[in-house]
Amino acid sequence: MKNLDDKKLKALIAKGQIKDAASLIEQVLKSDLTPEEKGALFTNFAQLYLQMKNELDDNYLDTQEFVLEVWEKIESEQKNIEEDLKVKAARQKINGS
User: Fold this and answer.
1) Which of 2, 21, 23, 51 has CB 3.0 to 4.6 Å from 31, enough for a Cys bridge?
2) Rounded to an integer, what distance in angstroms lies between the CA atom of residue 68 and that of residue 87?
3) b/e 63-94 (16+ beta carbons within 10 angstroms → b)
4) Mind listing the pLDDT tens digit for each residue in 14-42?
5) pTM for the complete prediction?
């Protein structure tokens, strides 16, 4: 049985080299496999898919948390600026300017 190089496959996908990744998978599938080997290979594909999906989901959540933190800082600064403008306008009104 020809084994699938998980690390190489993940690296190709991470680099966006999808055609090369598909070619690697195709080469393995075209090799002479018993039904058991083919089943093990598909199980390996499913496991690899889930690992990569979980990594993507984790990255998405990390990015989302970061964006929310930045958004909260921006909102806080906006409120500070608005308050400063209100105070400045009130001072100008009091001073008659």
Assistant:
1) 2
2) 29
3) eeeeeeeeeeeeeeeeeeeeeeeeeeeeeeee
4) 899 999 989 988 888 888 888 898 888 88
5) 0.62
> What tokens does 42 get?
């598909």
User: How many C-alpha atoms does 67 have within 13 Å on its Cβ side?
Assistant: 6
Q: What is the pLDDT of residues 83-95, one digit of tens each?
A: 999 999 999 999 8
Phi then psi dihedrals of residue 72, to 5 deg: -65, -40
Q: How far is CA 13 from the centre of its chain?
A: 13
d(Cα 97, Cα 86) in Å, to the nearest integer? Answer: 14
What is the rounded distance in angstroms from the CA atom of residue 69 to the CA atom of residue 88? 29
Q: Can you tell me the distance from the alpha carbon of 52 to that of 63, in angstroms, rounded to the nearest whole number?
A: 16
Type of residue at 65? E
Q: Is residue 39 within 8 Å of 81, Cβ to Cβ?
A: no
Helices (H), the chain: 6-14, 18-30, 35-95
